[in-house]
Amino acid sequence: MTFRERLQWIFRMALLLFILSSIGFLSALTAMRFAIQGREVTMPDLAGVSAGKARNILHGRSLGLKVEDRVYSNLPVDAVVRQSPLPNTKVKTGQFAHVILSLGAQKLTVPALQDQSLRAAQVELLRGGMQLGEVSSLHLPDASEDVVLEQNPAPGTLDAISPHVDLLVSLGAAPRAFVMPDLSGKSAAQAESELAAAGLKVAKVTPLAGSQLAPGMVAGQSPVRGQRVDADSTIELQVSQ
Hints:
By secondary structure, the chain is α/β, with parallel strands linked by helices. It folds into 4 domains: 1-38; 41-102, 2-Layer Sandwich (Trypsin Inhibitor V, Chain A), CATH 3.30.10.20; 118-171, Trypsin Inhibitor V, Chain A; 177-240, 2-Layer Sandwich (Trypsin Inhibitor V, Chain A). It has helices spanning 3-38, 51-59, 118-127, 188-197; strands at 40-42, 64-71, 80-84, 90-92, 96-102, 131-138, 145-152, 164-171, 177-179, 202-208, 218-222, 228-230, 235-240. The strands form 5 sheets. It has a 3-stranded mixed β-sheet, covered by helices on one side.
């Protein structure tokens, strides 16, 4: 074999290897694409299915089960009442179905919790096999602090479908609010005296150099004039040196 023939043979072999490598790469890419698409499954309908059976169904599709809550319903105990994602939704394998399970058709008598403290209401619910739900609160001028004003479900309800009772609790009277006055040009002592008369307190006094005002006079304030303040507001004064 001459030198030229040998070069031609090496060139043909290199070209053949390149073609085979390209075919192998494209095949691997296609297989990877099919594998990724193969990880997508359809979420089954689990409504009314027992938790154990639902877990097996999901396992067969490489999905998991997470129990988020339990509620009273006409379904058997541990049957799926609701689920997320919804049935027939396309999901990736390894994802969880979040479900709410049934506590059965048990009926409870919801206790009257109005006018009780939040702590006493919680204890009362636990005694009756129920739980504290969402707690909302608001200021009322004629209501004591930490007292239950309303509840849902209402007292005496026998067909509650959830063990949770939501409460509305009073925060008591709202703190008195004022409009921040303009204290500029007043002495620090006078400013503090005016604020104290309104039930307000200066939290911080900062010396301010370079002011054109006489020493000891208010050169700046926070909050500024016109802002709403109350007894819990942080008031700061800048006083000229």
